[in-house]
Design a protein that fits this description.
87 residues, mainly alpha
C-alpha cells in the first residue's frame, strides 16, 4: 500500500511539472491577470481576487450578495429533489 502512495505522489509531481512546462502562462498573460486584479472596477474571477480587491475583512458580504440568490434556488431544487426521492 505504501508503494502505491509513493507511485501516485511521483506521478502527480511529474504531471504538475510537465503541465507547467507545456502550458506555462506567458508574460503577457501574467500582465493581464495583474492588471485585472489591481483594477477594482472589474469583477473578481476567483475567490482570492475577491479577497484581494475587497480586503480581508470585507470580502464575505459582496460574495454573499452575488451568490446568495443563486444559492437559494439551488437549495430549493435540492430540497424538492430530496422530497421527491423520499416519497
Amino acid at each position: 500500500m505504501k508503494s502505491i502512495l509513493t507511485i501516485t505522489k511521483f506521478a502527480a509531481i511529474v504531471y504538475l511539472i510537465l503541465h507547467r512546462r507545456i502550458c506555462a502562462p506567458s508574460i503577457e498573460d501574467l500582465r493581464i491577470d495583474i492588471k485585472r486584479i489591481e483594477d477594482s472596477t472589474e469583477t473578481a474571477m476567483t475567490l482570492s481576487e475577491l479577497i484581494e480587491k475587497k480586503g480581508n475583512q470585507n470580502w464575505f458580504n459582496p460574495l454573499l450578495e452575488d451568490v446568495g440568490p443563486w444559492l437559494m434556488v439551488q437549495l430549493a431544487d435540492l430540497a424538492n429533489l430530496m422530497e421527491t426521492l423520499r416519497k
